[in-house]
Amino acid sequence: IPARIDVGLVFSADHGSWVGHAWNSAYVGDRWVHLDSAYPGIARSCYIKLASSTGDDRPGARLLANLATVAGKDIETVGE
User: Fold this and answer.
1) Above 60 in pLDDT, residue 45?
2) Global model pTM greater than 0.70
3) CA separation for the pair 37, 41 (Å, rounded)
4) Which own/partner pairs from 39-46 qualify as long-range (CB within 8 Å, at least 24 positions apart)?
5) Which of 1-5, 19-23, 43-47 has the lowest average pLDDT?
6) Which of 27, 48, 67, 74 keeps 20 to 30 A from 19, CA to CA?
7) How many H helices and E strands in the chain?
């Protein structure tokens, strides 16, 4: 099963804010399926993916570039 590591932000109700996070995704059928044991059952609208890696590349540059686009911005989840 093809898999990847996704990195970005997740809204943490415990912290009341967006926090950095990494989670796994697996390619099942014809789509990527989100898997996150740290935040089971949380709405997908509470995630912002900034980069992905299959383990054979270096997503750091993409992560930093994409993080710069949201740094200092207010992010509001308005619906699921």
Assistant:
1) yes
2) yes
3) 9
4) 39/10, 39/12, 42/10, 42/11, 43/77, 43/80, 44/80, 45/77, 45/79, 45/80, 46/10, 46/11, 46/77
5) 43-47
6) 27
7) 1, 4
